Known about the structure:
- The protein contains 13 helices and twelve strands.
- It is α/β, with parallel strands linked by helices.
- The structure holds pyridoxal-5'-phosphate.
Amino acid sequence: MKHKFETNLIHIGQDYKEQTGAVIPPIYATSTFAHGNPENFDYTRSGNPGFRNLENTLGSLESADYATVFSSGVAAITAVVSSLKSGDLIVAEENIYGCTFRLFEQVLRHYGIKSLYLDFSKEETLETLKELSPKIVWIESPTNPLMKLIDIERVAAVSTSLEASLVVDNTFASPYLQKPLELGATLSLSSTTKYINGHSDCLGGVVCTNSKEWSEKLNFAVKALGLNPSPFDSWLISRGVKTLALRMERHCSNALSFAEALEVLPVTNWVRYPFLPSDPDSSLARRQMTGGSGLVVAEFSYSKEETIKRLKELELFVLAESLGGVESLVCHPASMTHASVPKEVKESVGITDSLVRFSIGIEHIDDLIADLKRALS
Ligand SMILES: *Cc1c(COP(=O)(O)O)cnc(C)c1O
């Protein structure tokens, strides 16, 4: 019988425990397996019962035929692009995650794999895309850190007509709020370090797909490049993901109230949150997401120094990179997550020195808003 998302979170991916009656599958802390075992495990780099459990859980969340887990989000990205050859082209959203940009520019370029960056929120970009022959189209929605939304269904239609694979980095939304494969994407990639694990205590990545060919390429990349997670980390993620639905509900309601409070402060130039009624993408948000997730971005009228000073005044928000954990964090993208992006590029995409990204946790919203008001007053 087919069950709903919340039920799958708890009941799918619970195998390899039948001999003991354990309610929760144990961690298989082993590097190797006896030859000829019934499930054909051979060596943990090419598979472990814990990875299979996690893959079954995460695949079910996007109704995907296949899921492959990795040691980190960047390892998942590496696996996808390792299938490319010299001369191949990636066309990416200009506002992608800083480390994705760094990998494309500072690693892939040496191997002759080219990338081009466009603003996928603009109508003309889809026309430009039709004149190129990319192997991969790479987008994120919402984007990091500007919280711009991209119409996944429209980009998927154009990518399909060009026979390009569309990769959607779904880290910011999580599969609870957005299902890229259902909107036509070829691959849905997440850093499980963020909302999926949700507890900021390990790194991980996953790619979900309905393409057998892609699934084989990804499994090969795990073995050939050594991109597998550790059995301990994959167990932590299996544990963390069980509460994904509950956590996302609170992240969404807290973030919306926080964005509304931030929007009316005199020191904010603008605020973006997909489900904020004033957000330019709010109608697209309602079409492709079931909630706005937990990230809020704002630009203040402060200088760079004053912005950082105010952020350090916050007591409940730790000034740190990352997002998606139960605790609230705040980040200064220009000097932190996007420090490796050249200044001209940052400015051209709008990552200014007064831009601040909040990852709203699941604390009581009144405490979060009071902390904000105190730090800014
Ligand atoms: C964090 C993140 C990644 C990279 O994931 P790691 O687990 O840190 O390697 C990729 N994409 C986005 C959008 C992220 O936020």
